[in-house]
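User: quick one, fold this
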Amino acid sequence: MVQLKAEATRPASVAFKGEMRVAGENSDDSFLRTARQQTKLQRLKLTIRSDQGEYDETLIALAQDATVNSDRYDIQKLKGYVPGDDEPRLWLSSQLAGADMITQGLPLLAGSTEQLEIPLSVEAGNAGQLEVTLAENSLSDQINVYLRDKFSDEIHNLQKPYSYKSLENHS
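Assistant:
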């Protein structure tokens, strides 16, 4: 990913060259990872939709070698830019050390009684109805995923989508 500095002229372009690759990252010097290097992940994908057709998502990936701190599984979410459009967008991310994450890696749960709290951030540029859905869940059927709404202080089981009304410029 590339993040454009705020003072940069838009539109901008980025050029990557072969010599920028790091040698030795793969055993066969290919650019892509080989099958043996891939780690099996348990995944939770959360999505959010507005009644105006806006959509966003974030992924929580649980892996044996992931940590609660920043590691190779964590990907920071960057705010996008659409030329000529400065409208606020619907935004969903998990939080890690105050940073917005599009993908956050966490360690596997030790058992069905272990609890893991993952802070989320939602920004809604426009007032309206929002729906949070657990779109993908590859965890055990015995593990439930709940969402705690900090405004209403209610807890919702995400086996069913959770809907709520958002105020304009709400975060």
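User: anything notable?
Assistant: The beta strands are 42-50, 55-63, 75-76, 91-96, 99-107, 120-123, 128-137, 146-149, 154-157, 162-166.
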